[in-house]
Amino acid sequence: MKLIKFQKVKDGKYLKNYELTYLNNAGKEKCFEIVSHGELHSPEELGRRSSGVSIVATCGEKLLLLKEFRMGVNREVYNFCAGMIKDGETIEECIARELMEETGLKIKKIRKILPPAFPAVTLSDILNQVAFVEVEGTPNSEGASANEQITAQFYDRQAVAELLKEGAAFSSRAQVIFYFFTEGKLP
After folding, report:
1. Which of 8, 47, 90, 94 has a 20 to 30 Å separation from 115 between CA atoms?
2. Which residues contact 89 (CB under 8 A, 6 or more apart)?
3. C-alpha dihedral over 91, 96, 101, 104, to 10 degrees?
4. Strand (E) positions, the chain?
5. Which residues pair with 151 in a beta bridge?
């Protein structure tokens, strides 16, 4: 596989669209479309900058789940609290801000922040980090913007297991983490 052309085709408010033209293993040209949060100037910049965080938050023996309307699938989905890192913001500052904005909760302790990983490798060069935190407070969704529909709630292992068993709609990352929570295997 050899990249032979790199071109931005659309400049959206939150996502930039790019076309990557490759020579495939048979020597034929193949055009591949991706999106990125950042402005890319060369192929060397693809997948180099972490732009967001997913927050796995616990309070005692309970896990924070967000039930949020996601326009891309036109339905409510169970997910993590998450968001984009603002320019000049540290990952820790982003975690605290997103928790407060989406749930009203405060960080008690950051247990672990995983290295950046690709959440949608077939669609994007976006890198995301997963943070495991202990939080305090009572969740609310009053801080959510007019463009977000979020209900934040703590669930015990049995309630999360029931959601998984019923086939509730989850983001794939959240589903895996929520499964490990039901097995008592979170950091």
Report:
1. 8
2. 97
3. 160
4. 2-11, 16-23, 29-36, 50-59, 62-70, 75-79, 81-84, 106-113, 127-136, 150-155
5. 67
Distance CA 38, CA 51 (A): 8
pLDDT in tens, the chain (187 residues): 999 999 999 999 889 999 999 999 999 999 999 999 889 999 999 999 888 999 999 999 999 999 999 998 999 999 999 999 999 999 999 999 999 999 999 999 999 999 999 988 889 999 999 999 999 999 986 656 778 889 999 999 999 999 999 999 999 999 999 999 999 999 8
Tokens 């990249």 identify what position? 3
Name the β-bridge partners of 110: 133
Count Cβ atoms below 10 Å from residue 19 Cβ, excluding itself. 14
For 35-48, the DSSP string reads EESSPPSSGGGTT-
Half-sphere exposure at residue 91, Cβ-oriented, CA atoms within 13 angstroms:
20
Rounded CA-CA distance 40/58 in Å is 36
